[in-house]
Amino acid sequence: MDIQFVAQIDASADVVAFPVRKGEAGALGALLGAAATQARFDGAAGAIAETAAIDGAQAKRLLLVGLGEGSEHDLERAGAALVARLQTSGVTAVHVDFASAGQSDADDVLAFAMGARLRSWRFDTYRTRLADTAKPSLAKIVIASPAGDLSARWADYSAVADGVALTQTLVAEPPNILYPESFVERCQHLADLGVELEILDERQMKALGMGALLGVAQGSTRPPRLLAMRWNGGAEGEAPVVFIGKGVTFDTGGISIKPAAGMDMMKWDMGGAGAVAGAIKAIAGRKAKANVVGVVGLVENMPDGNAMRPGDVVTSMSGQTVEVLNTDAEGRLVLCDAISWAQKAYDPKVIVDLATLTGAMVISLGHEYAGIFANDETLAAGLIAAGEASGDKLWRFPLSPAYDKLIDSPIADMKNVGPREGGSITAAQFLKRYITDGVAWAHLDIAGMAWHDKDGPVYGKGATGYGVRLLDRYIAANHEG
Ligand code: BES
Ligand code: ZN
Ligand code: ZN
């Protein structure tokens, strides 16, 4: 989607959108006012009303777009709603007359443009018979505003949108196409942005003693990978913030196999890794002044003659042993070795992991908030604030020794599952056992957020891109300058 900013509306444009704040529809002229009344349009965020007009010999399509109260989220929602309405409508370009929406400033215009840009992501790779009338037509949005030249600031927004789109694509790809090695290939282009990539193969992981991650991988013919993406935008020698992602490219459950119904959803069990890759793309793309590393553990969890058995004991890179009582609780086994490796490689002061870790989190929070667990108040507050600001919202859950003892094992240092009750919390307690003292750590369980069967404010149903804007905002607000 090509988005341009101009000072004045092009009088010859044949499709024009007029942003309107809530309660201000009454001030519209006769034609637009009638369109608003007929459609019960009151300027609510994301509401749209349409009418047509003849200007000389030219037929024009006119739209009203509600800006609601004018918050950043409202403006994003408005831009997104306009794209959703016009994307496959046959319209190829729309001109947005922000000059008419009196009080809008540069931030408002950029938020509107961001919503439009985010909503324009689609995944048509495998549709070879799409009817012409169902193909996207909208290619250009021209936004007229008196806010001055926004192109320099837009470049940063655009970089973040590119990161979100990468995550959505990774999450949406089918599991025969996206597996550990191809995930790595899909991230190679980050090198063009100045990101340093390091890739560990099975042999190297074996030498490092990553018995937990490798235990998950051993039932699959697809070899595992550990991918580190390093962005050095901050002070030389300053310890990086490390993001860690669960990258289970398909989770059958392994020998503790999942039911058939809905198993296809487990292609997006790499949503944490996808978010981390997208966040690094965003951060590098806008040349953030911070040192940030993304580490993703990539495996496929399959049942097989060589697969892990329930009851197996594996030794993690940390030396701690795990009794694997359920091979479907594999995410924590992947993450624990990724965490140990990242701590050894980077000596970070801050670690944030993201994972589609537990079904219990979907039961708790649905598709509105991801769960956050943290051992550090400042980190928790910074992430929750970034969540509110970005729209990728977080709700805090507890950690405590009382939960921790639920994963003690009679024969190893811990077991990989606790009781059904509090399943998201015992999963977090498991990860906590791998965090070095003094490291500020947060675990984000995004199981309900990576994918949504309904349209959201800035995405259509499917892959949401959750986490990219959250992590980007967190870095911008807490680690730059
Ligand atoms: N990938 C799943 C969690 C999941 C479930 C994510 C549904 C998104 C939607 C994870 O690996 C898993 O299977 N967890 C088990 C853990 C249990 C065996 C302790 C679960 O949540 O049932
Ligand atoms: Zn699982
Ligand atoms: Zn899983």
Secondary structure elements and pairings:
Blueprint: E1 2-6, E2 15-20, H1 30-38, E3 48-55, E4 58-66, H2 72-86, E5 93-97, H3 106-119, E6 140-144, H4 151-172, H5 180-187, E7 196-200, H6 202-208, H7 211-217, E8 225-232, E9 241-251, H8 271-285, E10 291-301, E11 313-315, E12 321-323, H9 331-346, E13 350-355, H10 359-365, E14 370-374, H11 377-390, E15 394-396, H12 401-404, E16 414-415, H13 423-432, E17 440-445, E18 451-452, E19 462-463, H14 468-478
Helix pairs in contact: 2-3, 3-4, 4-8, 7-9, 8-14, 9-13, 11-14
Bound molecules: ligand BES and zinc ion (2 copies).
Offer a few descriptive terms.
481 residues; alpha/beta; Leucine Aminopeptidase, subunit E, domain 1; Aminopeptidase; 2 domains; 8-stranded mixed β-sheet; 6-stranded mixed β-sheet; 14 helices; 19 strands; 33% helix; 22% strand; elongated; binds ligand BES; binds zinc ion
